[in-house]
């Protein structure tokens, strides 16, 4: 997948990465929607690809050519079709004098990224050469990546083209360290073995690291810079990570902004703040990066900027070169996303007096109870402060009287045993009463492949709870 | 001048910096050529500006409005005209609600930089917003400038807009440390006082530092990264600088490439090379930066790329966003500079097998003696190896028999006394005989304000030498 980030655009084609956790049905839908001409399939995922191709044939769609990526020992899985090619053999037969096909316009598409599907059916987000170039440079800056970094891939490359650091590693002469499976032991082992300098990941990766078994950990060879994004992490996690030797920064963005769009640029004077204040600073999503023209928090109806008071909630909106060209073959969704001349993120935030933004919630994740808005993120932050809680997510549960009430889904740390009442009480002690959950459900949280909690599943579950 | 790098473009105007060492006559020529509407004058340079304005009036040209930058204590020089404004008062009367005037197109001009005049009459090099943005980011990368650097201005801001780091310091939240006069003592004092992290300068600045009095030096608070360019420095100077605690890198470019265009990106494996080899590596001008599309060494007639053999000399040519838009009001010079579809630097170089380029000479600085090409840079490198020589420059001296012969202008270190014959013998021991100077002249080298040796003056002197 890393090599194809260069080969495909250099051949004049558009690159579409697919999430490795999709099933055959989803893959067939995306192959058809993207009109893929060639599919490159890792040997571990051949069955899913085969299933997808079968589905395409059944619906009368011409399936793409298949290029199989064999195991590194060169052995092919049994039963590979005679109509397919093998990646390394294909390379060996290539023309070394092939002339790179430059895009005719810098606005030509370089890639299509299907959104992770937390909101609705996947949409194909189109990236341009121009946007990808600029977001690559901007992401290198915001992550402080100098020459010859060693990068551990705990962010999937199929997610916003690896937050554009696929191209970024090449730009800076970096070393790419890849993992078949992301486990705490693998993370610590690779850092130790390859002297990893930078990595990134959703908060779930950070959570995995701080909750790892001591026997799986290793002393880091130096400070490892880790950039987190995709969802606001519980503030406490920053300092637990720092205790282990990581430097953690936060960014914010969406597939539609090529991944990173804003980042919490740290000011040295904040080092001397009390822990609580530092946590608050760390938890902010910050300021726009060097590649973006504008980020603003606006009233979604009037399009007026909210005051920089740290209180007034508005929608985060983007403008600039590193905002998608549009959704593939979906003019309606594209127009909706850009209505008013800005890209509407669907995320709610406030702007602080120093210009730093802080995400409060997804617009659709807000719980409205008795006419009051509850930012589920704030409730989750309190829940993560509870010593027994490993993971937590809050959604609205329909209620005849209140409209909705906050409902917490909670996974406890191993060896801990508390009941719903304890947790509700804990929240009431730390929040206005109306914000505290009325219901607590104990179970593992459903997450998508990029680590985001799938709140639409939890909302369905909350709806189905017995009265 | 730093503030005006932002204020002028944000007011929708084009910024033209003038060399502070120009005389009234040159300033009047440039004011007229650039059609300046306002001139901002530092109080130290008021007399020169007044002279220029007088000259303009004499030729019937309407002089620009004058804004005087007073001493920091607010006192105005006596006799300031009533028709002029004072900078700080003007600011105090400004509208805080002024809306930034964005360029209509990103290709709109942001600045005009008059070339330093080593070749012919100054030309107005036009920079675009797009090019300036990209070269700013590229220069930050090649210099390894992270967030919140402390930058010492030993490169004048009137030279390629400070190699674009005027804007770069703002992009990275940097601190600007400025000097009224560049002396070794001031350099060491400011580094110590402000904990300078980065600086840059022509080789003459490096030479000034390594030849400084011990009493003027200070132990550096940390490694200070210094980027040198403008002319290839004598290789020895790199390691003398490193002994003093500086990290030195080399870049190459011209006013027409917004300053930096290539840089000698250092590879860790070169650290273990023998000193001689490391010197050779350090002295190369390297590879194109992240903002340029292409740098190549080409035969100036056929436009064919030279082989990457480290031997075949060709002309350095550039292509990309960070090449000037053209010369102001000089279509002929612009067409000549871009003939063949590439920007022709006029500099001669070879390309090594690893793609790194190495400058051999200015096309017009080559000495042709008995039909042989002599790269004056190679002769100068040998001269700098002589223990008694502080500075050296070689030009061609007209000769009835040979056409030209190499003529060395040399400044000795204090307390040394050698004669011409010693120096010629030293060169003959280290070079093919035809390359060794036939004449040695002892005197200070004429330099322009950016530290470049003015070879056109030396050529005149060599021509005028008695037989």
TrEMBL record, chains A, B:
Top-level taxon in the UniProt lineage: Eukaryota
Signal peptide start-end: none
Predominant cellular place of this UniProt entry's protein: cytoplasm
Positions of the AMP-binding enzyme C-terminal domain: 378-452
Key word Isomerase present: no
Gene Ontology CC annotations of this record: cytosol
GO molecular function: ATP binding; medium-chain fatty acid-CoA ligase activity
Occurrences of domain AMP-dependent synthetase/ligase (ranges): 1-328
Matching PROSITE patterns: AMP_BINDING (PS00455)
UniProt keywords, alphabetically: ATP-binding, Ligase, Nucleotide-binding
Localization annotation: Cytoplasm, Cytosol
Record-linked Pfam families: AMP-binding, AMP-binding_C
Family, similarity comment: Belongs to the ATP-dependent AMP-binding enzyme family.
Protein name per the record: ACYL-ACTIVATING ENZYME 2-RELATED
